[in-house]
Amino acid sequence: MRGTPPPPARAHPAHHPVFLTDLADLPVFRAVRDEFIDPAAPPASSLVQVSGLVHPAFRVEIDALAVV
After folding, report:
1. Are 66 and 37 within 8 A, CB to CB?
2. Distance (Å, rounded) from C-alpha 55 to C-alpha 21?
3. pLDDT digits over 2-50, tens only?
4. Among candidates 26, 25, 58, which has minimal Cα distance to 45?
5. Exposed e or buried b for every residue in 9-33, given b needs 16+ CB within 10 A?
6. Does residue 3 fall inside a structural domain?
7. 3-state SS of the chain?
8. 56 falls within a domain
């Protein structure tokens, strides 16, 4: 059909800063992350331990940048 946009392309993660309130959560975070990205070719990332996030119950925040 003319004028129909193409389907969305799959985004490729380029960078994802991670903020953890407890570094003891890092192994679990990495295990879950590796289910969604290729651990052999991961995107750039940074890890910051923080004393708290916007809600006291939050333990992790991920800010992701992707290239479409």
Report:
1. no
2. 11
3. 666 665 666 677 899 999 999 999 999 999 988 888 878 888 999 999 9
4. 26
5. eeeebeebebbbbeeeeeeebeeeb
6. no
7. CCCCCCCCCCCEEEEEEEEECCHHHHHHHHHHHCCCCCCCCCCEEEEEECCCCCCCCCCEEECCEEEC
8. no
66 has a pLDDT exceeding 80: yes
Containing domain of residue 13, as a range? 8-51
Q: Which two tokens stand for residue 36?
A: 């969604």
Query: CA-CA distance, 32 to 21, in Å (whole number)?
Result: 17
Q: How far apart are alpha carbons 49 and 52 in whole angstroms? A: 9
